[in-house]
Amino acid sequence: MAGSKAARGIRSNVKTFKLKSNVSGMAQNRAETFLRPDQAVDILNMHATEEGSWSADNAGYTKINDGGTAYESGAAVDGLAVFEDSSGDKHLFMAINGKLKEVNTSTGVATDIDASAGYTVGNQVDFEAMYDVLYTVDGTINPRKWDGASAGNAAGWPVTGPFNNPKYLTKHNWRLVFLAPEEDETTFVVSDFEDPESFTFASASTDAYIGHIDGRIKGARSMHIPASNEEQTIIFSEKSTFVLTGSSAVLSDSDGFKVIKMNGNYGAINNRCIVEVGNDILALNIFGITSYSSTTQSGTIQPSAINSDRVKDVIASMNLNAKEQCWGIHLPNRREVWWFLPTGANTQCNAAIVYKYPSPGSQDEIPKWSRRLDAGSKFKMAHGALLDRTFYVGSYSGVVGSMFTASTYDGTGIPWKYEYPFWDVGNEKQNKRYLNGEAHFKVRSDQNFTFQYQWKGGGCNDQGSQSYPIETTVAGAEYGSATFGTDYFGQSEEVKVPYDIFGDGLRVKHTLSGTTADSGPEFLGLTPVLELGNISQHWL
User: Fold this and answer.
1) Model confidence over 71-115: pLDDT tens digits?
2) How many degrees, rounded to 5, is the angle at CA 312 between CA 307 and CA 313?
3) Which of 29, 56, 139, 149 could pair with 167 in a Cys bridge, judged by C-beta atoms 3.0 to 4.6 Å apart?
4) Helix, coil or strand: residue 314
5) Residue 173: CB partners within 8 Å, gap ≥ 6?
6) What gap in Å lies between CA 314 and CA 371, rounded to an integer?
7) CA pair distance 40, 53, nearest whole angstrom
8) Closest Cα to residue 96, out of 496, 456, 394, 410?
9) What tens-digit pLDDT sequence spans the chain (540 residues)?
């Protein structure tokens, strides 16, 4: 007994704790020391589940191209859009190699819709539908249209001015708005009332209108303002925001067109980076992501930043020389908004920021942030479109993929990572050591994950890394004595993987990572057991 803890007057302070149920995704600040254990420093290529875990399963895509070959050899997808015709049928359209094609999502066959469109290869094509007609522009040609039967030039161009070759499209009070024409990218042209191909320019209230902003136009979106029961159009330059109000070309009318500068700090990179989310508009700019939801509530535009510091770190890595490649999309069935951007020296989008917003009416849920990264040049995506509930992506190599249908990027494994912050486990001034720990997963195929740890302050400041396999059998998955059945997403069917961690210190950090195979793991969290002592003496 002489060597026992009781005889020596030292009693261990053992604490079991759980690092589970991450509630906010990537943390909202950069100070790792002060982050909560339910936040993460980084979440890579994993999506938030409704149960609160993070999963790399079905985080990839499968290509739908007929025969698996590019739709146009050597050509990038320069635009994707969904168009619903007068009969209610929905079409997936693709701009590629100067042409407009329709992609049959069942067979993967692409058919020419407008082989003579004449888009400049490599330019981004913008789409807008009005009165069962799809209009397209790219900044180098006069607008084209497809009416469900045939394609051709939109009437009325070039517009008096002369203004031709607009770059962006939107709608405003039953009119079509053409923005940033080639001659003067500070200009926009509003069509006649209920006639998107007529530009009269006289004195009647239904006539067309030409307006200007102080800066080069980068995009526009219309919003309905419940506070005033008006439709307003937000026009973006790169660093400013303007609003177009009114519906009459007679400026002296009470509802005459007016352009008002509302903000001189935040804008948008381009029209594809402006995303509608219910009554809100979210825009990616070179500083971050801004929300315009206050517009619908108060009737005035008061943009507010919604991104965290860590998201801004990703945006700060953007290649500004290739920022026109950026684009975004809203996936309402997943409650997610994705923005794609080129980082580092890349001239093509190779990364994405993912914003998952709370369920409507939820009182407790908060937004979650994560990010995506390319693997093997298989996730460099130029455009995307949502057809019903399916998210289609178009690549720089002429491939169209169906997202969330595989755990690889067209057969290439996806690197995933979940990185915790340094944490003092609620005992800021006490040294602590691990007795043991378990990582909790749900899997359906063989997986390997790497566990990394690092201590800071007070102790040995050790760090280490080790790989752990999870092997599956016909009956289920096994690791040591931990098993679960074939219904792998049941609540009790976790794989508990013991891991080793050595050393001691005041704060400890954990990082788990791996690469997906035929499927990806779902990570639920960690349950370590710590022993605490005083700052000068500790005991195992």
Assistant:
1) 999 999 999 999 998 888 899 999 999 999 999 999 999 999 999
2) 145
3) 139
4) helix
5) 193, 231, 246, 247
6) 9
7) 12
8) 394
9) 344 444 344 445 666 666 655 656 777 666 666 677 677 889 999 999 877 789 999 999 999 999 889 999 999 999 999 999 888 889 999 999 999 999 999 999 999 999 999 999 999 999 999 999 999 999 999 999 998 889 999 999 999 877 899 999 999 999 999 999 998 999 999 999 999 999 999 889 999 999 999 999 999 998 877 666 678 899 999 999 999 999 999 999 999 999 999 888 889 999 999 999 887 889 999 988 988 875 444 344 456 777 777 788 889 999 999 999 999 999 999 999 999 999 999 999 999 999 998 887 776 677 888 999 999 999 999 999 999 999 999 999 999 999 999 999 999 999 999 998 888 877 778 888 888 888 888 887 888 899 999 998 877 778 899 998 887 764 555 444 344 433 333 334 678 888 888 888 888 899 999 999 888 999 988 888 888 764 433 333
Contact 241, 234 (CB under 8 A): yes
Question: C-alpha angle with apex 294: 290 to 295, nearest 5 degrees?
Answer: 100
Which of 519, 514, 536, 489 has the alpha carbon at shortest distance from 44?
A: 514
Contact 113, 72 (CB under 8 A): no
What string of DSSP letters covers 212-234?
Answer: E-SS---EEEEEEETTTTEEEEE
Query: Is beta strand 400-403 parallel, antiparallel or unpaired with respect to 219-225?
Result: unpaired
Surface-to-core class of residue 388, CB atoms within 10 Å of its CB (0-12 exposed, 13-18 middle, 19+ buried): exposed
The DSSP symbol for 131 reads T
CA 332 to chain centroid, in Å, comes to 12
Tokens of 7: 């005889």
Element (H, E) at 441: strand 432-442
Burial of residue 481, with CB atoms counted within 10 A of its CB: 0-12 exposed, 13-18 middle, 19 or more buried: exposed
d(CA 438, CA 498): 4
Question: Using CB atoms within 10 A of its CB, is residue 418 exposed (0-12), middle (13-18) or buried (19+)?
Answer: buried
Task: Report the run of H or E that residue 330 belongs to, with start and end.
Answer: strand 327-331
**Using an 8 Å Cβ cutoff, are 33 and 397 in contact?**
no
Cβ within 8 Å of residue 89, ≥6 positions away: none
